[in-house]
Structure formats: C-alpha cells, structure tokens
Amino acid sequence: MEQKDMLRIVLVGCGAMSRAWLQTATELADVEVVGLVDIYEEAAHARARELQLTQALIGTDLGEVLERTRPDIVFNCTIPEAHLQTSLQALEAGCHVLSEKPLAASLEAARTLVAAAKRVERYFAVMQNRRYDANILRVRHALASGELGALTTVNSDFYIGAHFGGFRDQMRHVLLLDMAIHTFDAARFLTGADPVSVYCHEWNPAGSWYDHDASAIAIFEMTGGLMYTYRGSWCAEGLATTWESDWRLIAQRGSITWDGGKDVRVQQVQETGGFLSTFRDVEPDLVERTERTQGHSSAIRDFVACVREGRAPQTSGTDNIKSLAMVFAAIESAESGKRVAVSW
C-alpha cells in the first residue's frame, strides 16, 4: 500500500470488548481513530469520551462513516451475527479489516469474506490473540527445534465450571461454538498441521446448569498422520484447567506437557533398548515478553504493521477459516453421530 504518515481507523461495535482495541490503537504513534460506529449512538459517544477521542466521527451508519472518514483500517467488534455484513461492507469500501472472533457465524459466510478480501486485495484477519502469548510460543519453539522428532499425537483438555447466566445458558453447542475455536486454533498453531476429519460426541452432564450439551470430546485426524484429541466442558466443577487448556504433545523422541500457563515440561529420549527408555529433562528456552507477546494488544499492533509493511497477517482469514471449519465439522459430527471430513 502507499505509505502514509498516519493510518486511519474506524471501529464498529462499541461494546465492552472495544475498550481494549481502542486503548491499543491510541498507544500507536502512527494511527488515528477517525470514527466510531454503533447501532446505539450513545455507546459510541461514551467510548469516545472515555478514551478522549474528541476528533472521532460518531455514527450509527457504517457506510456514512466510511464515506466521510475514508479509513485505511476497520476494526470489527460487532456481534458474530453482524460480522459478515460489517466486514464485507468495509472490504468493499477498500479497507483492511481486523475482526473479532469468530471470522463469521457460518462457514459459508466465512468463505464469502475470504473471497471478498482476495478480490479487493485487502488484508482480512481475525483476533486470534492467543497466538501472541509468550507461553504458547515457548512450546512452539521447543517443538520447532526438532530435537523431539516428528509429532504423532496431541491431546488438549479444557475444564472450567463457568456460570455465565444469560444467553449462553440457552445456547446450543455452547462449548464448541463459544470456546473451542481458541483451542482448535492453538492446536493448528502448535503443530503446523491442518484438519482432515473429525468424530465428535457432545453431551450434557447430570446436574448441568446449561439447557443443551455443554461437554464434548472430539478426535481429529490432521495432515501428516497426526492425531489430535479435544476434551472439554463448561460445567466441570473443581480442578479447573487454565483458559488455554492443558496439553500433552507426544513426538517420536520425547514429549511435552503444558498447563496453558508458565509450566512447560519437556522430556527427551536419552537411551533406548530396554523395556522402558531413559529420558533427560530439557529446559525449554524462555520467550521474552515484548510488544509481540502481549496477546490482544500484540495482535492489533501486528495487524497495523502488516498493513503498513505490506505483509500478510498470521491470523488472516485464509488461515483462520481452517480453525473455524474444525468447529463446524465437530458440530456436524456431534449431530450426525458420524465421522465428518473437514473442508473450508
């Protein structure tokens, strides 16, 4: 793109999540927030007052704000059901788009957006902030060293007793739709593998406070013969995992366990020949916490840098649609009781 002194940003959807987006944007010297859009105009005014965005144009009509401000980038923080319309309108207006998760509310809508971004030659990416976490990067680097050999099996567990109240208590496929995308995308990020097929079973445990199935087990076949399993529940009381899940990654010459936080353990085969091999503990290198490893903030900073430097974002729609496809294939399998091929 043509280099500019300042990149102009419009944010759409001024709910609670927008605060973090705008706080990061206001910290960047080379961007200017020129517009805020929300169906409730007072929500946009309130956010502008809070963050002292006195020059930002406030409006309820995205098209009008785009026409008057001519932004380079649109941040889409709307509800999932509005992602297709909002992102598509922004792309067709010539803007690069960074959208909150999920990419879209359906796989068909996601394909439409990916195709639109390609057609208009604009970047379209998703807020997959966990890829910018120092702990997951530490695990990824340990795998990338090659010392453990090729991965064969990856298991992840997610168990949290979440008493949300509100719409999630009545939501169908609440775990798979609302949370599993994070873990599925992390599995792809760690392994470099893509989904091939899935068998998934959902159920609602006795005593659950959810109206529909809130627990699931999924078995994914991935490229390269890798097997990935996901076990999770929104209504598991006690001994909760981290929000990033609990992991075991098994390779040909060793294994890694990761609690989703700072606890990363690596054992490598030292000697074989007996009934059991012997192992040595390996201390994985620490990943320095920098502006590139601060999760949500780093994802926004990186997207802005990609737009300025003309490089594809790592969470681009063309990549993230593969993680979204895992969600919808798992739901299809759970509903049909059959193994389902994953396509995107």
Automatic annotation (TrEMBL):
Domain of life of the source: Bacteria
Name listed for the protein in its UniProt record: Oxidoreductase domain protein
InterPro entries, per the entry: Gfo/Idh/MocA-like_OxRdtase_N, Gfo/Idh/MocA_oxidoreduct, GFO_IDH_MocA-like_dom, NAD(P)-bd_dom_sf
Domain Gfo/Idh/MocA-like oxidoreductase N-terminal stretches: 7-126
Pfam families recorded: GFO_IDH_MocA (PF01408), GFO_IDH_MocA_C3 (PF22725)
Boundaries of every GFO/IDH/MocA-like oxidoreductase domain copy: 137-256
SUPFAM superfamilies: Glyceraldehyde-3-phosphate dehydrogenase-like, C-terminal domain, NAD(P)-binding Rossmann-fold domains
Gene Ontology terms for molecular function: nucleotide binding
Alphabetized Gene3D superfamilies for the sequence: Dihydrodipicolinate Reductase, domain 2, NAD(P)-binding Rossmann-like Domain
PANTHER family tied to this protein: CONSERVED EXPRESSED OXIDOREDUCTASE (EUROFUNG), OXIDOREDUCTASE
